[in-house]
Amino acid sequence: MAAGSARYVRYILVSFFVLAIFYFVSNSADIATPLRTQIPTTKQPSDGSSDSRPAAKASPNDAKVKTTYDASQFPMAMTPNDPGWNDLAGIKGGPRMNATFVTLARNSDVWEIAKSIRQVEDRFNRRYNYDWVFLNDKPFDDLFKKVTTSLVSGKTHYGLIPQEHWSFPEWIDQDKAAKVREDMKERKIIYGDSISYRHMCRFESGFFFRQELMLNYEYYWRVEPSVELYCDVHYDPFRFMHENKKKYSFVLSLYEYHETIPTLWDSVKKFMKNHPEHIVSNNMMGFLSDDGGETYNKCHFWSNFEVGNLNWLRSKAYTDFFDSLDRDGGFFYERWGDAPVHSIAAALMLQKEEIHFFNDIAYYHVPFTHCPTGQKVRTALKCHCNPDDNFDWKGYSCTSKYFEVNGMEKPEGWDEEGKD
Ligand SMILES: Nc1nc2c(ncn2[C@@H]2O[C@H](COP(=O)(O)OP(=O)(O)O)[C@@H](O)[C@H]2O)c(=O)[nH]1
Ligand SMILES: [Mg+2]
């Protein structure tokens, strides 16, 4: 009888102990993830042309945008040796820039942009919660808004592009433009017969940065459908741009297809003659021309990836440049792309030092890859790109030229990796 009740007491004690452990473990799991609760669980997409940031629902970003701060109070870990390098969990403390991701897309791009967003969030934005602006020439549908809002950790905004930013200007001769498209189709020039592609290139050249939703921001990071980010981004590239006075940045550069821009350089030369006040003396003409500006060597930064300063694009210098090119009609009489337009503007109207190459942001847009040079860098950033795919030092890339004209040393390992 005594032995039986002792066993009974032991059972009760063991059960109590097991329950206590269970209670402790489930409770401490809650304590271990307090930051999750700071992410708003019900995010509403904000809509359309009338939307504005001050009226928008508060996002984690809003409270933190703070462009006057003591940078030494919030050191950024730029290399693996810097304190805080491995601090990749939870929401990052410290200042946020007045910045947003921006994507131009069609409703049919939803699943391809979903992939891009997932990568940007996983590699960077989940810790920073920057906003994301989506722009479209047609209203975004509910599926697009629902999927993208669920994936973006910051606040999402959806803008409808005004018709005058996505149509033929009145000075364009429609018959001439139609003949060009017909001719380019016969010559099998990529997107040569497309009207919408031309509207897209003109919009990205001259209008995305002055959409109502974009007026609320100072910096942007452009993201296209189906792109990949192959490495962790340990620091805030927007903050890097701000603190280092950078206005434009790139990861891939290459030569433009001549057939799409036969008279672009003539237009640029005309602009330089008419507006010498906009051309800075410390420019990067050497990146664009191998004969002191006589001819264009077709080098450009690939603009499907850009982190840049919107105030620069909204400046008189840039808008005069765009207006001058737009008047010449090459967006429709040829097929000028926004990449050479942005690049030429940056190289002529920014100080050399204001243009930055992000070796540590690994990127893919069909068919080119930027995989960071340097095995140590790739390991530290947990990259999953194949260094053999890196385009930077191959013959058709202009990145070597960028380093040479700036007298910069190429990243360690450049001569051993990713050559043809
Ligand atoms: N809303 C809208 N977006 C477009 C249109 N055409 C292209 N885009 C977007 O513009 C960007 C560039 O287009 P894309 O087809 O990727 O051109 P590529 O990268 O030069 O081959 C992408 O973000 C597309 O989603 C269009 O007709 N309407
Ligand atoms: Mg694309």
TrEMBL record:
Name one cellular component (GO) term: membrane
SUPFAM superfamilies recorded: Nucleotide-diphospho-sugar transferases
UniProt keywords, alphabetically: Glycosyltransferase, Transferase
A Pfam family annotated for this chain is Glyco_transf_15
The protein's matches in InterPro entries, at most eight in alphabetical order, are given as: Glyco_trans_15, Nucleotide-diphossugar_trans
Polar residues composition-biased segments: 39-52
Q: Which GO terms describe its molecular function?
A: alpha-1,2-mannosyltransferase activity
GO BP term, example: protein N-linked glycosylation
Disordered: annotated segments: 39-66
Q: Which Gene3D superfamilies match?
A: Spore Coat Polysaccharide Biosynthesis Protein SpsA, Chain A
| The family this protein is said to belong to | Belongs to the glycosyltransferase 15 family.
Q: What is this protein called?
A: Nucleotide-diphospho-sugar transferase
Its lineage reads: Eukaryota, Fungi, Dikarya, Ascomycota, Pezizomycotina
